[in-house]
Amino acid sequence: MYNRTNFYQQFSKTEIYSEICKDYDFVLFDKHFVDVNLSLLDSQSATPRQQMADRALKKTYFSAVPFYYLKFLTEKNPTTIYDLGCGWNIFKKYYSNIIGVGPEDPQHEFYNADINDYVDKHFVDTHQNYFESVFSIDALHYHPLSDIKNIVLDFYSMIAPGGRGWLALNAARLVENDTNFIEKPTEFIEQYIKEQLETLPESVLLLDIDLSCADNWMDGNIQIIFEKNH
After folding, report:
1. Dihedral sign for Cα atoms in the order 122, 149, 137, 48
2. Are 120 and 138 in contact (CB under 8 A)?
3. Neighbouring residues of 155: CB distance < 8 A, sequence distance ≥ 6
């Protein structure tokens, strides 16, 4: 599981960390964004990660937390790593073998996807056992919470045998799309998610469900890392 102190000690020695420090004023290692001054964010930016990394602001923030999960993918030295719902495609700057997939207009000033496509049912059906290495951060959760297991299994189905995948979801977006859960307390929702995901394939390397920050809009509060053995 993610440990802020341990990961900082490891990651702060890397070349990637040095590059991030050149690009942003503050590099954050907190698992949840409870300490960020939200008044500094530009509400006109299109996504939370753009808000945190908008040079029009007086200060810029960047989360190092995704790199903890990305190391599970990069340690197998894959030829390509796909970022589904890449938005700004920001991680490509630090890993040249990332291929960003996003539905936005590639000509839009904020977006830089390599492949312009929606990750919908057709995309899932046509990419079965396809990706050697793949991740998605807070992009595949615009569905009812009651569908969470299907969302996770659809993502898993796109990983090629021998490949790895990391899926991050934010529970608040799932709840917003499910009237059965909108009035439920966080503890109830967290328990429901754990029950739904307790029978995932045996190739789960990491399952971290932590709703102590109920709306972790940047990096998600449901983290799953798969390795598909066959």
Report:
1. positive
2. no
3. 134, 136, 140, 165, 167, 226
pLDDT in tens, 193-228: 999 999 998 899 999 999 999 888 889 999 999 999
The pTM score is 0.91
Under-50 pLDDT residues of the chain:
40, 43
Angle formed by the axes of helices 4-11 and 65-74, nearest 10°: 70
Q: Indicate the Cα dihedral angle 122, 124, 127, 128, nearest 10°.
A: -120
In eight-state DSSP terms, residue 147 is G
Q: CA dihedral defined by 30, 64, 54, 220, rounded to 10 degrees?
A: -60
Evaluate the CA torsion angle 156, 189, 219, 51 in order and state its sign. positive
Task: Report the run of H or E that residue 191 belongs to, with start and end.
Answer: helix 186-197
| Contact present, 172 and 217 (Cβ < 8 Å) | yes
Quick one: DSSP state of residue 193?
H
Alpha-helical runs (H) found in 116-160: 121-125, 148-157
* Whole-number Å distance between alpha carbons of 159 and 127: 8
How much is the mean pLDDT over the chain?
89
Topology (CATH level 3) of domain 65-227 = Rossmann fold (3.40.50)
Domain boundaries along the sequence of the chain: 65-227
Q: For residue 125, what are its two tokens?
A: 């059906």
CB 133 within 8 A of CB 84: no
